[in-house]
Design brief:
- By secondary structure, the chain is α/β, with parallel strands linked by helices.
- It is built from 2 helices and 8 strands; from the N terminus they run βαββββαβββ.
- The chain has helices at 19-28, 81-90; strands at 11-15, 33-40, 43-49, 56-60, 74-77, 94-101, 104-110, 116-122.
- The longest helix is centred in the N-terminal third of the chain and has 10 residues, at 19-28.
């Protein structure tokens, strides 16, 4: 068996059409921190992350080779799904759920570009 030294995912790219609008959404609605925001040659490197997270989200545009709204399957874990859904709805975010499932509770969040996330609160007993 191959032995690797990978410890975590570092960056997930979120394709967006407007970096400023996306930054405002992730900071204001989700409470993310801006990790990097600078010009790197002809492109702007803009990265946000949940407070204390090891994984950041790069907000990349079509000019950088990405199709806005094409990210799916990203799961964000929360300890209080109801409170987070209420806060997101108050901030004007598109949220569906929550729904009770055998492994916990989930809701779906869509950002202004159509990128979709699952907000997940694990069942107290685990899965």
């Amino acid at each position: 068996m191959l032995s690797m030294n990978i410890t975590h995912a570092k960056i997930v790219t979120l394709p967006v059409s407007d970096q400023d609008r996306a930054k405002d959404f992730y900071v204001a609605a989700l409470g993310f921190d801006v990790i990097v925001d600078r010009q790197m040659g002809p492109v702007r490197w803009l990265q946000v992350a949940p407070k204390g997270a090891q994984t950041g989200f790069t907000l990349a545009t079509a000019e950088q080779g990405f199709t806005p709204g094409s990210a799916t399957g990203i799961v964000l874990e929360t300890s209080d799904l109801d409170a987070d859904c209420a806060a997101l709805l108050e901030a004007g975010a598109a949220v569906q759920g929550p729904t009770d499932l055998p492994w916990g509770r989930q809701a779906t969040l869509t950002d202004p570009d159509g990128n979709s996330f699952v907000l997940s609160e694990p069942a107290p007993s685990g899965f």
